[in-house]
Please model this.
Amino acid sequence: MLAAERREHLLGLLARTGKIVAKDVAADLGISEDSVRRDLRDLAAEGLCQRVYGGALPASPAVVDYDARRAVAPDGKRKVAAVAAALVRPGSSLILDGGTTALAVARALPKELTCTVITHSPTIATALIDHPGAELFLIGGRVFKHSAVTCGAAAAEAAQNVSAELCLLGVTGVHPEAGLTTADADEAAMKRALAARAADTYILASREKIGTASPYRVLPWEKITGLITDADPRDPALEQLATLGVQLLPAA
Model:
């Protein structure tokens, strides 16, 4: 089989099954695992898969820059945001992550809602300036421009001094095996720091993130309260998550 044919075979397998196991592909095609791994390295370099131990998973499309992400699945993000915003009770405190889905949540919060919003995103804080009932607490630190959030040691330390009833957290990848992932190590650490300061943590994930993975793990499944998504409940990844006991909140 030519290299181009192997490439198409691997991409087709990824689309059908949601993962590639290098040793299985090598056995099926009668080639070496080294050949499969080289093919996967090439595909990963083009952003077409996320390499993991033993093979590869679908790469998340949500790792492009902030401006480009605004155009990715806007309807899905609005649906997820509507369900998430409904979880915020009057008089409660909320830790709201950064990113484009979190921004949709901020815009979905009723202007008359009285609450406290803690965020490490200047963009989120700006979006809530005209909400008279929202008390805003902005966590400072080094600005990670890719997601328009603060992270790093100073931001993580500041996060230890806040607490909230609810945390709404964004990720770039949601996969039954790889878990909840994102594309930057410092950002992943900051997300963990924020989630640790809330009684309940819900993950915001529009459908294009389901069944995909990014390089850095954020949280294990047992650390979250639920997953809010507009993906089809019959999606194989969601069916697997349901068997793991993950609470799924559909965003129709």
Residues 3-17 form the longest helix (15 residues).
